[in-house]
């Protein structure tokens, strides 16, 4: 026998429909303007495929860096108590709310040729990050990292410490516990965090154009190419937007199916 | 029971109510390119003006998409032409000012640039405006005419972001408008080879039957000595 149906407040469902409309209406508006008949031609244009290639390279590198750098940070945020943790958490979250253009400018002040750290990188190693693909990776990593850290941190909290403690009780050393017990037990969250940060990196625009500039084949990612195409070729811009949107939607839908974001 | 469609309608009515009261109807909405910010700001105190700044092409796109404005200023003839052809602008465009390209270098001239031909050196960090925007199109035209092959390190989406990167010393050199170089106090390499590559700033009323206040404001911008002084100060050329 099935349980009695729960009564749902209809006004909430109505209000939710308004919110959903707000989220989806712009996409619908865009889709009805897309030049579908020439879509394939536009997307196979060398300018687009070049930007796609840069985007894939940059976003994958950013996702890898997010995992490598974000894993220890997420662990600290979930497991270690220290004074000023709320402030640290604010810094972790900051790139999510900061206008990306501001993030890019801040990156220039820090890592630019005359930046806080950048001037030494330039002087000691002849290394300048702005206007390079590596610079685009740094910009994308900066904005994407919070998505990985927060996802994995919440995974660690749900997983709890009991398993880690059991391993510690069996006198496994802490680092080995982290690698062999903690990480495997939250691989779902790690996968979700990596995918989310990758999707964010893929869509990154403001910090990239500010910090890394815009050069075809080097730093011109799909969002940059899209923005510039809006100036004089809206059809191409729409075609690239569809591509970006499709890829991002696939990632987000797959996330839900495979890892069951909670 | 509340119908979701009803909620959507109510929200839409509320939203349109907000936008109607957002800009007071007495204010004249002036759409101006980023390079005109200081000019428009100089008249804001005396006139009832609501400025809206963006790149010229973005402004034209905003008009296309139904943005309400009274006056459009563009940084090139081509962008104004687009707005006229699309019938976003029905009034007669007039010449407001001119601007020309300069070779601007970073503080201390780290790239040791002494002539425009130095831009061809591959070991200099060179910035240009993207060809999609007027300053980039003009720069490309100039380089072609001067038979120069420049491998730029970045094509910036607007002239101010390019000028800023030169000012910060992240780029050695770039081709920007004289006014932007002046505004940021950038060092400029003397060359007369660029002065003929100019862009025209056009101003037009949106309507073909503009309000008298709108016409008066356009006249003021074009012919008042105070505005002309600001334009001269900023490095704009006279029409």
Keywords for this structure?
heterodimer; A: 262 residues; mainly alpha; MetI-like fold; 77% helix; 0% strand; globular; B: 239 residues; alpha/beta; D-Maltodextrin-Binding Protein, domain 2; 2 domains; 9 helices
* Largest sheet entry of chain A: none
The run of helices and strands of chain B is: HEHEHEHEEHEHEHEEHH
Q: How does the overall form of chain B come out from the CA principal axes?
A: elongated
Return the CATH class of the largest domain in chain B.
Answer: Alpha Beta
Tell me what the CATH architecture of the largest domain in chain B is.
3-Layer(aba) Sandwich
Q: Can you tell me the CATH class of the domain at 56-216 in chain A?
A: Mainly Alpha
Shape of chain A: globular
CATH homologous superfamily grouping of the largest domain in chain B:
Periplasmic binding protein-like II
CATH level 4 superfamily of the domain at 56-216 in chain A: MetI-like
Q: Counting H and I runs of at least 4 residues, what is the number of helices of chain B? A: 9
Counting DSSP E segments of at least 2 residues, the number of strands of chain B comes to: 9
Number of helices of chain A: 13
Query: How large, in whole angstroms, is the Cα Rg of chain B?
Result: 21 Å
Q: What is the largest interface, and how many residues per chain?
A: A-B, 33 and 28 residues
Q: From the coordinates shown, what is the CATH architecture of the domain at 56-216 in chain A?
A: Orthogonal Bundle
Describe this structure in words.
The complex is a heterodimer of chains A (262) and B (239). Chain A has 262 residues and is an all-alpha fold. Chain A has a domain at 56-216: MetI-like (MetI-like fold, Orthogonal Bundle), CATH 1.10.3720. Helix content of chain A is 77%, strand content 0%. Chain A has helices spanning 10-31, 39-43, 46-79, 85-97, 100-111, 118-125, 133-159, 162-169, 174-185, 187-203, 206-211, 222-232, 234-259. In chain A, helix 3 packs parallel to helix 7. The model of chain A has no long low-confidence stretch (mean pLDDT 90). By secondary structure, chain B is an alpha/beta fold. Chain B has two domains: 23-97 and 200-234, 3-Layer(aba) Sandwich (D-Maltodextrin-Binding Protein, domain 2), CATH 3.40.190; 100-198, Osmoprotection protein (prox), domain 2 (D-Maltodextrin-Binding Protein, domain 2, 3-Layer(aba) Sandwich). In chain B, 39% of the residues lie in helices and 21% in strands. Chain B is built from nine helices and nine strands. In chain B, strands 1, 2, 3, 4, 5, 6, 7, 8 and 9 form a nine-stranded mixed β-sheet that branches. In chain B, helix 2 (37-44) links the parallel strand 1 (28-33) and strand 2. The radius of gyration of chain B is 21 Å and the shape is elongated. The chains are: A mainly alpha (262), B alpha/beta (239).
């Amino acid at each position: 026998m099935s349980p009695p149906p729960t009564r749902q407040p209809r006004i909430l469902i109505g209000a939710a429909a308004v919110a959903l409309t707000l989220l989806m209406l712009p996409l619908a508006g865009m889709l009805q303007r897309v030049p579908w008949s020439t879509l394939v031609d536009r997307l196979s244009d060398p300018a687009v495929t070049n930007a796609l290639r840069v985007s894939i390279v940059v976003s994958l590198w950013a996702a890898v860096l997010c995992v490598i750098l974000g894993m220890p940070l997420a662990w600290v945020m979930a497991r270690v108590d220290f004074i000023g943790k709320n402030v640290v958490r604010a810094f972790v979250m900051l790139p999510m709310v900061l206008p990306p253009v501001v993030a890019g400018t801040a990156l220039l002040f820090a890592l630019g040729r005359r930046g806080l750290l950048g001037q030494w990188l330039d002087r000691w190693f002849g290394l300048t990050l702005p206007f390079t693909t590596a610079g685009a990776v740094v910009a994308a990593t900066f904005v994407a990292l919070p998505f990985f850290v927060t996802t994995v941190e919440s995974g660690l909290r749900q997983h709890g410490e009991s398993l880690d403690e059991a391993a510690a009780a069996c006198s496994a050393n802490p680092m080995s516990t982290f690698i062999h017990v903690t990480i495997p037990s939250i691989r779902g969250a790690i996968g979700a965090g990596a995918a989310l940060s990758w999707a964010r990196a893929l869509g990154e625009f403001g910090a990239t154009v500010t910090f890394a500039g815009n050069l075809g084949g080097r730093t011109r990612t799909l969002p940059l190419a899209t923005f510039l195409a809006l100036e004089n070729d809206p059809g191409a811009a729409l075609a690239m937007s569809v591509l970006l949107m499709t890829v991002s939607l696939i990632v987000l839908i797959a996330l839900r199916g495979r890892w069951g974001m909670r | 029971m509340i119908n979701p469609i009803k909620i959507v309608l109510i929200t839409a009515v509320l939203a349109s109510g907000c936008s109607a009261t957002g800009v007071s109807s007495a204010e004249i909405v002036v759409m101006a390119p980023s390079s005109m910010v200081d000019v428009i700001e100089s008249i804001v105190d005396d006139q009832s003006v609501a400025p809206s700044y963006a790149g010229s092409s973005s402004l034209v796109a905003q008009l296309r998409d139904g943005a309400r404005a009274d006056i459009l200023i563009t940084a090139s003839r081509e962008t104004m032409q687009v707005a006229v052809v699309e019938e976003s602008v029905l009034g007669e465009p007039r010449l407001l000012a001119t601007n020309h390209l300069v070779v601007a270098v970073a503080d201390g001239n780290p790239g040791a640039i002494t002539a425009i031909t130095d831009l061809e050196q591959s070991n200099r960090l060179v910035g240009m405006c993207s060809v999609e925007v007027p300053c980039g199109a003009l720069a490309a035209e100039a380089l072609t005419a001067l038979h120069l092959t420049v491998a730029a390190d970045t094509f910036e989406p607007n002239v101010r972001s390019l000028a800023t990167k030169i000012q910060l010393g992240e780029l050695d050199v770039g081709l920007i408008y004289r006014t932007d170089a002046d505004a940021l106090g950038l060092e400029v390499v003397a060359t007369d080879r660029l002065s003929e590559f100019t862009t025209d700033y056009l101003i037009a009323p949106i309507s073909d039957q503009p309000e008298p206040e709108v016409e008066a404001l356009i006249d003021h911008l074009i012919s008042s000595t105070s505005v002309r002084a600001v334009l001269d100060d900023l490095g704009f050329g006279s029409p």
